[in-house]
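Dear Dr. H.,

I hope your travels went smoothly. While you were away I took the liberty of generating a structure for the chain from your last submission, since the lab meeting agenda had it listed for discussion. I wanted you to have the full record in hand beforehand rather than looking at slides cold. The sequence, exactly as received, is reproduced here:
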Amino acid sequence: MKLAIIGCGYVGLVTGACFSDFGHTVACVDNDPDRIDALRRGEVPIYEPGLDELIHTNVRSQRLGFTADLAAAVRSADAVFIAVGTPSRGEEGVADLSYVYAAAAEVAAALDGFTVVVNKSTVPVGTGDEVEAIIRRIRPDAAFAVVSNPEFLREGDAIADFKRPDRVIVGTEDARAREVMTEIYRPLELNNAPLLFMGRRTAEMTKYAANAFLVTKISFINEFADFCEKTGANVQDVARGIGLDNRIGPKFLNAGPGYGGSCFPKDTAALIRSAETAGAPLRIIETVVRINEDRKLRMAGKIIEACGGAAEGKTIAVLGLAFKANTDDMRGAPSLAIVRALHAAGAHIKAYDPASMEQARTLLPGVEFCENPYDCAQGADALAVLTEWDEFRALDLTRIMAALASPAIVDLRNIYRPEDMRRRGFKYSSIGRE
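The corresponding predicted structure, in token form, is as follows:
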């Protein structure tokens, strides 16, 4: 099938690359000519393992292309996927849908023949209705159907998630749209991935509900981690013990410094506002968000405690800045709040991350960025692990010990065993373990 993807950001590029790898002909559209030119040169603007190779392979096979000509891409498409950003607007956290609505208006003007317009962006319930109204107002003669098809991609694992999904949610009650969406996702039949059809508003709600449940699991285990530290219990064993219950499951039960990223913070904020507007406030999610914000400052306090209770004049080495491993994404990263709090307490911060330092430089002024973990540790009064990159799991700890001015390590991702670290002479602290 012929597909157009509107938006060459994270979701749009992964979606376009994977669909083209399924054998569809895909045109990825963006209104930033510099981004289109870069993509045509083979320069991928985001860090996602395997994405460069997937894009290059399908460009060479002429199944994937990049263009700024939205009208031409839409006219030839069987389905158009809107995959533009929905950032938070102002302090109130309301989702900014202006990019979605602008894309819908442009798509409307270019429609030619029956076309399925698919909303891939994460949007509040009822957005699909407004997209349909915009298109109908501009092109009352057009034959189209608006579908909700939310993404469930984990940064760092996005390609695997797209090709081997737990499920694919499709919100439509239009028979022709259902046929088109079934054909688009037909390659997934080999993986037995459930294609779940439901109402459009229900699909929009499902995406928000999924994110809300996941952040609840994260904050739940983080609170229990604090409880474990006070009582001498081990949060990792607690997580295994409850995660083996198939009613709970093991995922998102790794205690740490809190959640971040491009989706969870903005989506929970938008969900809370939408629920308030609808007169059905989500008190659990409101509490989860407060817990997560407090968590970051608590972690800064934990690092200061490792420095003897005061950070003034101390040098602190930070390993990992991205909100999670295998991405360069700094959006909502816990490191931002933690590093700023340490800096405000008078500490000098040295930092290293394998992928995100270019983004971090503009977000964290005053930080000394280093070339490797050992350069980062040199002369530091404490070292804090904030992101669980694989390379941090295999550090030469003898070399780290020699580099540090004081052998204090704060492991906010529990990547080391406490007994091993103490045997090596480190003053070691972690999350939810004695």
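Two observations you may find useful: The longest strand covers residues 2-6. The longest helix spans residues 200-231.

With kind regards,
E. W.
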